[in-house]
Design a protein that fits this description.
It contains 18 helices and 21 strands. It has 717 residues and is an alpha+beta fold. It has 3 domains: 207 residues, Growth Hormone, Chain: A, CATH 1.20.1250.20; 247 residues, Growth Hormone, Chain: A (Up-down Bundle), CATH 1.20.1250; 180 residues, no CATH class. The longest helix is centred in the N-terminal third of the chain and has 53 residues. Keywords: Membrane, Peptide transport, Protein transport, Symport, Transmembrane, Transmembrane helix, Transport.
């Protein structure tokens, strides 16, 4: 039975190999097909999960915007700290293949735990938070751990004579990264917002599909196990560099005398380490010093998934009458534009600038990329200033908001504290007034004049918003105070409530959402409904009052529908408590275009610069340093989001100004940098006799590392 199973398995491998060979082409190692499919699925799972993460924090875990942004960037930062750990494990212990396998299992477990935490029926809110955080930590270790391994492992599959095929592989590899990113940021927001489960947005499905794709990624990678070329771990150069630097510092600290032969502090490591290694570390440190200002660029760039997504929730998401997008889908613009902009810059813009006799150095490109990113946040500031015009600002401490809804016939004059205002019947929209309570809670007299004077006494609490309902009962004027919901929903949906003027209770249904309106000027709960034109089905205890047309319930608005009796029929009078989002989502396109242009000039050029300016066997060290700039950029956002407490448009403006300042500093530093000719890099002959053991290995790696310039096709690492 076992032999039959083995023969069956071998047959399956043979046939799958045949078709994969046809797919990939006969000049390619069959194994790289498994690597490319693995990368596509892994990037889909990562970016798909991350696309909906901020709204998950806001709407499911019910965190505020600042905490949601901080945790989002803490997770992003961790994803770029852990590649250092993955590189150490792969190079010093397990090798690339086993590291990818083991950490992919951690990755899958993290996705599963994260998906389970998004199921409302599993535990309580605390358990959801715990599962979500554990899942995110495991995902960060998984994705970060395999990040430095997969591309290099794919390059290892080619023999030295297949240089052209290897170049094409890297292009295909990074196209698969962008394809996975683009599709996932398009699909997972649809799964979240358009599919309902447990009566709400289906975050369990939005996380579950990326989890399934990561399982597929792992299964595909394992399926190619028998075909891979595997290089044993050969020691980690990053660890060697750290040890050399540590020894130099320690040796210099212990020495009480200066040594004129040792002009650089690293020269104090010559007692233990070779001159060649020390010279190479000096070269690397010159580049790493230039990296110091770079985190500020990433602080802006990575806010596409946090602050910019939050901005999108307060905008009009409709394209025409029938098509709308989800606020978290806008992130797909970056992946789409990077595919468009790379050839445009390489084939058109850079050559045209060159024709103007402008010397386009890599560091100048990076500085220009910073300027474009700052301009992107300038554009985001302008959008935000207009977006907040539809937002009702909450009352500060010691104050509250009050609007008056006049349901009586005629104009009513209201006097409260030092405020006096006249409200016509069913004035739309009502206007909120700020009341100075001077205490956390206060009971106030409200004088209402409508023919005769009536005094109402109501209790107000600070930092809340209220509607004062004035209505007529026989010959008396009465008042009713109702607490309002003025916050716009984070997913952009409108809010609805019903005020029932009738003597019997009413049940109303909008798109499956049920409202219960108590009798005698009772108010239903405030609930969100899907954006669109709606009719409400109305039922009373004594009769079916049919369907009432409510009109368009637009993005971000809050409505109060007053149910009144007109000539024996129930009618719904609409009052707009909070204005709908009136800034169209298309106004975000310029800021995405600017940030993507900045990415092409900054990130892609930075990768090429790093590889060209480092010795062959030190390129991994600079790659680690580059990833750390991304991590520290996310730490900057985490600090500002939690500590500054600024208005959003001011925060955007602050980031733009900081990046412009950093750009000036970086430009000054760049003027003192002397470029190293890559062709002369490996001609440095400072090695002492007896310390050339690794030269053969290093030279063998040279061609592979030179091809890593192909990574400039994408930054979705």
């Amino acid at each position: 039975m076992t032999q039959q199973a083995d023969r069956h398995l071998q047959t399956e491998i043979t046939w799958s190999g045949f078709y994969m060979k046809k797919l990939c082409g006969t000049n390619y190692p069959l194994s790289i097909c498994f690597v490319v499919v693995n990368e596509f699925c892994e990037r889909f799972s990562y970016y798909g999960m991350k696309a909906v993460l901020t709204l998950y924090f806001l709407n499911y875990l019910e965190w505020d915007k600042d905490l949601s942004t901080a945790v989002y960037h803490a997770f992003s930062g961790l994803c770029y700290f852990t590649p250092i750990l993955g590189a150490l494990i792969a190079d010093s212990w397990l090798g690339k293949f086993k590291t990818i396998i083991y950490l992919s299992f951690v990755y899958v477990i993290g996705h599963v735990v994260k998906s389970v935490g998004a199921i409302p029926t599993v535990g309580n809110k605390d358990s959801h938070i715990a599962l979500s955080m554990v899942g995110l930590i495991l995902i960060a270790f998984g994705t970060g751990g395999i990040k430095p391994c997969v591309a290099a492992f794919g390059g290892d599959q080619f023999d030295e004579e297949h240089m052209k095929e290897r170049q094409k592989f890297f292009s295909i590899f990074y196209m698969s990264i962008n394809a996975g990113s683009l599709l996932s940021t398009l699909i997972t927001p649809i799964l979240r917002g358009d599919v309902k489960c447990f009566g709400h947005d289906c975050y369990a499905l939005a996380f579950g599909v990326p989890a399934a794709l990561m399982m597929v990624a792992l299964a595909v990678f394992i399926a190619g196990s028998s075909l891979y070329k595997r290089s044993p771990p050969q020691g980690n150069i990053l660890l060697q560099v750290c040890n050399c630097i540590g020894f130099a510092i320690k040796n210099r600290w212990k020495s009480s005398k200066s040594d004129p032969k040792r002009k650089h502090w690293l020269d104090w490591a010559e007692d233990k380490y070779s001159k060649r290694l020390i010279q190479e570390i000096k070269m690397v440190l010159r580049v790493l010093v230039l990296y110091i200002p770079l985190p500020m660029f990433w602080a802006l760039f990575d806010q596409q998934g946090s602050r910019w997504t939050l901005q999108a929730t307060r905008m009009n998401l409709a394209f025409g009458e029938s098509f709308t997008i989800q606020p978290d889908q806008m992130q797909m613009l970056n992946a789409l534009m990077i595919l468009l902009f790379v050839p445009i810059f390489d084939l058109i813009i850079y050559p045209l600038v060159g024709l103007c006799r402008v010397n386009i150095t890599p560091l100048r490109k990076m500085a220009a990329g910073m300027i474009f990113a700052a301009l992107a946040f300038g554009a985001a500031t302008l959008v935000e200033v207009n977006v907040v015009k539809t937002v009702v600002e909450p009352a500060p401490a010691g104050k509250c908001l009050l609007q008056v809804v006049n349901l009586a016939e005629g104009n009513a004059t209201v006097n409260i504290l030092d405020s006096s205002f006249t409200i016509s019947q069913l004035q739309d929209p009502p206007q909120y007034k700020l009341l100075h309570l001077q205490d956390s809670s206060k009971e106030l007299d409200i004088e209402v004049t409508l023919g005769a004077k009536t005094t109402c006494r109501q209790t107000f609490t600070q930092e809340k918003a209220y509607s004062l309902i004035i209505y007529q009962e026989i010959n008396d004027i009465k008042c009713k105070l109702v607490e309002d919901h003025i916050n716009k929903n984070e997913d952009g949906t409108p809010n609805v409530r019903f005020l029932n003027t009738q003597p019997e209770a009413m049940n109303l249904t909008i798109g499956g959402v049920v409202f219960s309106a108590p009798p005698d000027y009772g108010v239903s709960s405030n609930q969100s409904v899907k954006r669109g034109e709606h009719s409400v089905k109305c039922n009373t205890q004594s009769a079916d009052c049919g369907h009432l047309y409510l009109g368009l319930l637009d993005f971000g608005a809050s409505y109060t529908f007053i149910l009144i009796n007109e000539s024996g029929k129930i009618a719904a009078k609409r009052m707009v408590d909070v204005t709908a989002n009136n800034v169209h989502i298309a106004w975000q396109i310029p800021q995405y275009a600017l940030i993507t242009a900045g990415e092409v000039m900054f990130s892609i050029t930075g990768l090429e610069f790093s590889y060209s300016q480092a010795p062959t066997n030190m390129k991994s060290v600079l790659q680690a340093g580059w990833l750390l700039t991304v991590a520290f950029g996310n730490v900057i956002v985490l600090i500002v989001a939690e500590g500054a407490g600024l208005e959003q448009w001011i925060e955007f403006l602050l980031f733009a100004a900081l990046l412009l300042g950093v750009c000036i500093i970086f430009s000054i530093m760049a003027t003192f940098y002397t470029y190293v000719d890559p062709e002369q890099m490996d001609k440095v002959q400072l090695e002492e006799p007896g310390k050339d053991e690794d030269d053969h290995v290093d030279m063998k790696k040279k061609n592979v590392d030179m091809l890593m310039k192909e990574t400039r096709k994408s930054t979705k690492l």
